[in-house]
Automatic annotation (TrEMBL):
<keyword id="KW-1133">Transmembrane helix</keyword>
<feature type="transmembrane region" description="Helical">
    <location>
        <begin position="56"/>
        <end position="74"/>
    </location>
</feature>
<dbReference type="InterPro" id="IPR018584">
    <property type="entry name" value="GT87"/>
</dbReference>
<keyword id="KW-0808">Transferase</keyword>
<feature type="transmembrane region" description="Helical">
    <location>
        <begin position="324"/>
        <end position="346"/>
    </location>
</feature>
<protein>
    <submittedName>
        <fullName>Membrane protein</fullName>
    </submittedName>
</protein>
<feature type="transmembrane region" description="Helical">
    <location>
        <begin position="352"/>
        <end position="371"/>
    </location>
</feature>
<feature type="transmembrane region" description="Helical">
    <location>
        <begin position="392"/>
        <end position="413"/>
    </location>
</feature>
<comment type="similarity">
    <text>Belongs to the glycosyltransferase 87 family.</text>
</comment>
<feature type="transmembrane region" description="Helical">
    <location>
        <begin position="161"/>
        <end position="181"/>
    </location>
</feature>
<keyword id="KW-0472">Membrane</keyword>
<feature type="region of interest" description="Disordered">
    <location>
        <begin position="1"/>
        <end position="23"/>
    </location>
</feature>
<dbReference type="Pfam" id="PF09594">
    <property type="entry name" value="GT87"/>
</dbReference>
<keyword id="KW-1003">Cell membrane</keyword>
<feature type="transmembrane region" description="Helical">
    <location>
        <begin position="425"/>
        <end position="445"/>
    </location>
</feature>
<feature type="transmembrane region" description="Helical">
    <location>
        <begin position="193"/>
        <end position="224"/>
    </location>
</feature>
<keyword id="KW-0812">Transmembrane</keyword>
Length: 510
């Protein structure tokens, strides 16, 4: 990397063998073997006297260019479908792995006819879906794109234009995401390169509108890291108005604030999230409650679908599970309770990004459907939770194989020629996705239980994205953390200043 800086101020800075100097920016090539090997393409890691990033060419600007390049490659990958694959031959878009919901929903959800989402019924409604089945902010995003789409030409021309407009707007979301990530870990802006170069960013960004929620969630994480919990809550609320999963971040914030006694910060985040969500959703609720509720009712009534382990179970047993929602809810609650216990009992308070990744991964793994673009929810959180290229690329490889597998299976099942893979091979693709995600979850949990293995904390950091929680002393702990406080060995885990608080508590007891 030739655009990094070793110090916040101009001038040479040497990096000792035991880790970076205080107030320095961490360069991946100095601490990550895969990154160091990759940097050889550009002449090797930066030297000890590198004066990089001290002028106009900052890490954020370099990351934006990389993210745009990756995104454009993904748009080029959709070119076979853009030309005619979305319109001629049902399986062409699958055999070329270039499917996108965007052009199909332009007509299928009434935008081509000038219908208003949530207010006007769909052109061809079904009993369980009579209005647009997306959250309100995503519907607004789609409506803006429809307003910018030409009203002349054939329906195919208009669908192509609609896709291009959405692709441009979603590119802005990708840029916002990478900038927010670079500003979340203050000493580790280059961790955002994991997102900017992620293969799934190229492959999945224009399948659906998930990048909108991803960008808002990344901004929320950046505001939290800047000790602005109220604004973090606002963007969590906006992200939840675009997709459901961001609301899960309030869980990790709750348990971490509980452990550190920072209840005011949690209250500000919760209040901001609630106010922002209501501001967006209340007008639509008042105008047509049934239209607003379609997203939630459709999510509840839909059956097991592509990408989930529930699909494997149902296809193997040959019948559906009538209590599927109950099982999913119970598993998700158990997973979240497990993450909560981990947060309160770990020897050292976990980082917010670690817990956020775990709860969103739990949601993805237990859900009744896993669309390929859902991986975008996890990519920014993975870059913050475990910024190690080897593990990240192993996981991304599993996700790319699933991406290819699902389209190949749809091509096989949607055409009499059966070009693609059958059900057994598709089940293997689902298992690869599950195993890859569980592998990364295992590493994050291991880092939490053994803080000395955490790639972020190895240089003495506590929680660069923790905001008011960074180096905060513990106030409430359970399990292992409580036992460690009675053991002198706790000193190796304790953040700076926490032992002083423990001495005060012990003196008070005596």
């Amino acid at each position: 990397m030739t655009s990094s800086t070793r110090d916040e101020t101009p001038g040479p800075a040497a990096v000792p063998a035991e880790g970076p100097l205080p107030n320095t920016v961490v360069v991946p090539a100095d601490e990550d073997p895969v990154s160091a090997a990759g940097s050889e393409v550009f002449g090797g890691p930066p030297g000890r006297r590198a004066l990089l990033g001290v002028n106009w060419w900052t890490p954020a600007k370099f990351l934006v260019l990389i993210a745009i390049a990756t995104y454009v490659l993904g748009m080029m990958q959709k070119l076979p479908c853009y030309e005619d694959g979305w319109f001629h031959g049902a399986t062409t878009q699958y055999t070329h792995a270039c499917y996108s919901d965007i052009p199909h929903l332009f007509s299928g959800r009434g935008f081509a006819d000038g219908l208003h989402p949530y207010l006007d019924p769909l052109p061809q409604p079904s009993p369980d879906m009579q209005y647009l089945e997306y959250p309100v902010l995503t519907g607004l995003f789609m409506q803006i794109a429809a307003w910018l789409t030409t009203t002349g030409g054939t329906i195919q021309d208009r669908e192509q234009w609609f896709w291009m407009v959405n692709a441009g707007m979603l590119m802005v979301c990708a840029v916002v995401t990478v900038v927010a990530l670079s500003r979340t870990h203050r000493r580790r802006p280059w961790d955002a390169l994991l997102f900017a170069l992620a293969p799934c960013l190229a492959l999945d960004s224009t399948i659906n509108w998930d990048l909108l929620a991803v960008a808002l969630t990344a901004v929320a994480m950046a505001y939290w890291s800047g000790s602005r919990p109220g604004w973090a809550g606002v963007f969590i609320g906006l992200a939840t108005a675009a997709k459901l999963y961001p609301v899960l971040l309030l869980g990790p914030i709750l348990v971490l604030c509980w452990r550190s006694g920072r209840w005011r910060a949690f209250g500000q985040a919760l209040g901001g999230a609630t106010a922002a969500w209501l501001l967006v959703d209340l007008p639509i609720m008042a105008a047509n409650f049934k239209g607003w509720a379609t997203f939630y009712t459709f999510s509840q009534t839909r059956k097991e679908d592509f990408g989930s382990f529930w699909l494997i179970l149902m296809q193997d047993r040959g019948r559906q599970l009538s209590t599927l929602n109950t099982w999913i809810g119970a598993l998700l609650v158990l997973c979240c309770l497990g993450v909560g216990w981990l947060a309160l009992s770990a020897p050292r308070r976990p980082r917010l990004a670690q817990l956020a990744f775990l709860v969103v991964a739990a949601f993805v793994l237990t859900n009744k459907v896993y669309s390929p673009q859902y991986v975008l929810w996890l990519v920014p959180l993975a870059a913050l939770a475990r910024p190690r290229w080897r593990d990240f690329l192993i996981w991304q490889t599993c996700e790319v194989l699933y991406f290819l597998g699902v389209w190949s299976y749809l091509a096989y099942s949607g055409d009499s020629k059966q070009h693609g893979i059958g059900q057994d091979w598709y089940h293997l693709a689902i298992v690869l996705h599950l195993v890859g995600t569980l592998y990364l979850c295992f590493l994050v949990v291991r880092d939490i239980l053994h803080p000395d293995r955490d790639p972020v904390r190895w240089d003495g950091s506590d929680d660069p994205s923790g905001g008011v929680l960074d180096f905060a002393p513990d106030r409430f702990v359970l399990g292992t953390a409580r036992r460690l406080r009675e053991d002198e060995s706790y000193a190796e885990y304790a953040p700076e200043g926490e032992l002083d608080w423990l001495v005060e508590v012990d003196t008070t007891k005596r």
